[in-house]
């Protein structure tokens, strides 16, 4: 077992190593420059389109539900535990690198959704299927010729395996653990209830998932943000110090000893991507189901994901942790953490220190709802990956396996599962990034042509 754990640790080091980190951020920079930072230029329009009823096209869910489903899968333990882990492992400066990954990640999500709509197909059930496996196999074949199905198949395999851990068992374990710690609910009771609730939703397919996530995600995100803002504004005098800790340690790595800047960057970018999934390609699977035949408009909407997830929600978590004094920087420049906490317990302690008796419940309930929504969103991702690999009939079996794993994850120690899922989650990025880079000129041309056309229409009005 120790040998297996060591192998998985080494594999994780490769999957989330310097090459992947550089490729993730580099692709985001490339797409940001090529689209002239579309994620910021078109931000007001993206917000308008998000709530528009004017979208036309075939699909299974509305553009709003597509974004909420993708956010359901990304707003999870990464926003609560992931931020705390980044700070505990890489110091306060890691938050800066989370921001960097998100700042450029919006362009990656734009490109992913654009390609997802352009290359999606209609399956045997009349549902839309799309995402990296389709724009890899079909898009790269159209552009370069040859057979790229193997690369699409690899993405689907990595996504399918990752779904069991990072999309299911890790999340159900967080829900059960949180309910036991805060409310004394036995793990197996939480597992039974969670499995039943998940089963009720996923049996209805993407339409039911979309209807549930478009209610849960706005409510849970708003509730968590309000709780965080109460903490921040009641301790507003400590906020400048928190930002100072972030920026002063972003380029030195001194807080974690030895000036290991690479550690700060790695944990910041890796946890940022774990939070918003920009560059992994997973969100594109949800956007492919949108009732929107306009790739550019769906891309605008998709680009909001990184802003909402990381630049807003993760920043709220980071500020709460840093204003609470659970993390301090000594006169020697080294970081000290109360009781050597990390992950969700660090976030919970920070909230509870500043809102005694209430703060821990904000984190507990946040984890419950964030993780539940992630399980729903990742079920859809995993099912579409499996559909690409083995056909639509295999998905019916997958549903019941998924429900069973919700219960198993609630009652089982998941150190090994977490490691395996972390590896495959990182490996997902590689086929997707290859496609984004090789198809980037198409993304740039489609964006430029669309904007020229829109400008011309506006001038003629």
Secondary structure: elements and pairs:
Layout: H1 2-15, H2 18-34, H3 38-41, H4 43-50, H5 63-74, H6 77-90, H7 93-118, E1 121-122, E2 128-129, H8 132-144, H9 149-183, H10 187-202, H11 205-234, H12 239-249, H13 261-276, H14 282-287, H15 295-302, H16 304-323, E3 327-329, E4 335-337, H17 343-354, H18 359-390, H19 393-411, H20 415-438, H21 440-460
Antiparallel strand pairs: 1-2, 3-4
Helix pairs in contact: 1-20, 2-7, 2-13, 2-20, 4-15, 5-11, 5-18, 6-13, 6-16, 6-17, 7-8, 7-12, 7-13, 7-15, 7-16, 8-9, 8-20, 9-10, 9-18, 9-19, 9-20, 10-18, 10-19, 11-16, 11-18, 16-17, 17-18, 18-19
Keywords: Cell membrane, Membrane, Symport, Transmembrane, Transmembrane helix, Transport
Transmembrane segments: 14-33, 150-171, 183-204, 216-236, 300-323, 358-380, 400-420, 426-444
Pfam families: Na_Ala_symp
How would you portray this structure in words?
The chain is 78% helix and 2% strand. It is an all-alpha fold and 461 residues long. The chain has a single domain (2-460), classed as Amino acid/polyamine transporter I (Up-down Bundle), CATH 1.20.1740. It has a two-stranded antiparallel sheet. Strands 3-4 form a two-stranded antiparallel sheet. Helix 1 packs parallel to helix 20 (415-438), helix 5 (63-74) crosses helix 18 and helix 9 packs across helix 10 (187-202).
In short:
By secondary structure, this protein is an all-alpha fold.
Any key phrases for this structure?
single chain; 461 residues; mainly alpha; Amino acid/polyamine transporter I; two-stranded antiparallel sheet; 21 helices; 4 strands
């Amino acid at each position: 077992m120790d040998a297996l754990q060591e192998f998985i640790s080494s594999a994780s080091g490769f999957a989330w190593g310097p090459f992947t980190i550089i490729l993730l951020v580099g692709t985001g920079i490339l797409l940001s420059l090529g689209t002239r930072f579309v994620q910021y230029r078109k931000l007001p329009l993206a917000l308008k389109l998000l709530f528009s009823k004017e979208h036309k096209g075939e699909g299974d869910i509305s553009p709003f539900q597509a974004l909420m489903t993708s956010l359901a899968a990304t707003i999870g333990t990464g926003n609560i535990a992931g931020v705390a882990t980044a700070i505990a492992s890489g110091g306060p400066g890691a938050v800066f690198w989370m921001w960097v990954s998100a700042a450029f990640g919006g362009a990656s999500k734009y490109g992913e959704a654009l390609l997802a709509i352009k290359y999606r197909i209609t399956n045997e059930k009349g549902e839309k299927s799309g995402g990296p496996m389709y724009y890899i196999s079909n898009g790269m074949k159209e552009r370069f010729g040859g057979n790229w199905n193997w690369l699409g198949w690899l993405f689907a395999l990595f996504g399918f395996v990752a779904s069991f851990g990072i999309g299911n068992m890790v999340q159900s374990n967080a829900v059960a653990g949180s309910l036991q710690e805060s409310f004394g609910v036995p793990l197996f009771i939480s597992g039974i209830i969670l499995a039943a609730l998940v089963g009720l939703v996923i049996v209805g397919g993407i339409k039911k998932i979309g209807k549930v996530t478009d209610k849960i995600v706005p409510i849970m995100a708003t509730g968590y943000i309000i709780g965080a803002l109460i903490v921040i504004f009641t301790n507003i005098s400590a906020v400048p110090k928190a930002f100072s800790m972030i920026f002063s340690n972003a380029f030195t790595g001194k807080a974690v000893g030895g000036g290991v800047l690479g550690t700060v960057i790695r944990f910041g970018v890796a946890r940022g991507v774990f939070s918003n999934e920009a560059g992994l390609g997973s969100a594109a699977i949800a956007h492919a189901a949108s009732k929107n035949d306009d790739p550019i408009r769906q891309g605008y909407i998709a680009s909001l994901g990184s802003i909402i997830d990381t630049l807003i929600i993760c920043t709220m978590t980071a500020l709460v942790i840093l204003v609470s004094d659970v993390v301090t920087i000594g006169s020697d420049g080294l970081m000290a953490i109360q009781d050597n906490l990390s992950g969700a317990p660090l976030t919970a302690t920070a909230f509870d220190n500043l809102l005694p008796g209430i703060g821990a419940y904000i984190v507990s309930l946040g984890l419950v709802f964030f993780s539940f929504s992630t399980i729903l969103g990742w079920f859809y991702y995993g099912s579409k990956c499996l559909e690409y690999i083995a056909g639509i009939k295999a998905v019916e079996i997958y549903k019941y396996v998924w429900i069973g794993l919700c219960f198993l994850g609630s009652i089982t120690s998941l150190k090994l599962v977490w490691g395996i899922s972390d590896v495959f989650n990182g490996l997902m990025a590689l086929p997707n990034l290859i496609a984004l880079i090789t198809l980037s000129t198409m993304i740039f041309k489609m964006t430029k042509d669309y904007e020229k056309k829109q400008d011309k229409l506006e001038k003629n009005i």
